[in-house]
Fold:
Amino acid sequence: MTDQPSLIDIEPPALPEGFCYEPDFLDREEERALVTAIKGLPFKPFEFHGFEGKRRVVSFGWRYDFKEAKLREAPPIPDFLHAAGAKAARFAELHAHALEQLLVTEYHPGAPIGWHIDRPIFADVIGVSLLASCTFRFRRKSGGAWARASLMLEPGSVYLLRGPARTAWEHSIPPVEKLRYSLTFRTFRKKARP
Ligand SMILES: O=C(O)CCC(=O)C(=O)O
Structure:
């Protein structure tokens, strides 16, 4: 006998407060139709202070310009994304009109998103995953060390970042193995947008 805890005794680190996840948010048909339409969007490499990320993005409603640190108007959310937006709003118990910004992201195999906290002008963040799974990681400074937690985001799933999960924890996605798309809907903090 040893005093070592067995694997089953070890609790995985708790996910941050304010994080909600629903794996079966879209059915197969909804997901397939979204992916087909999304593939036709005018994606551009993600730009951050003159550097291009490996992922490609397209913004609707509003676009955050990192170079100028300014919010800019973007084309309206296309009709084919309205149903997913309304569903995402219901999941987060918000009015569909509150989801004023949408970022659609394309991750080819090997594309990651680095550690970050979304800009403070935004309030809630709702993410829908399409086509492939990925690891979604959280970290937060705790004393001299990092507290960490992670989970697998399944295709067709949705998550909400609100409260500490949104403002106190950083999140990231390590390089994905297969082509993945995500819809990131955001609300604005009061008086944050022009
Ligand atoms: O692809 C995702 O689900 C995460 C996107 C994200 O964190 C971001 O664009 O800030």
User: Anything to note?
Assistant: The chain has one domain: 14-188.
